[in-house]
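---------- Forwarded message ----------

FYI, see the Aldo/keto reductase record below. Original note from H. follows.
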Amino acid sequence: MMDDLCPGATANVSLPIVGCSSPERVEQAAAALNIHLDQSDIDYLEEPYNAHELVGPHARPGDKPLAGTTTPPSR
């Protein structure tokens, strides 16, 4: 199996799996291979994403009030 995942790897080599910090995470990632989506799920996931306007201090909203406030940001 290791040759299928990493050709040329030997049993004496440790290969980290990025994003998996525990054995449970590896098991969850492997289990995800058995998820089957029906056509309506696929259609939903492939819909164009409509970006929304940024809010908060990093949005640089100009004279618009920040989210959750009624006053414009101070400059």
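H. also flagged this: Residues 13 and 34 are 28 Å apart (CA to CA).
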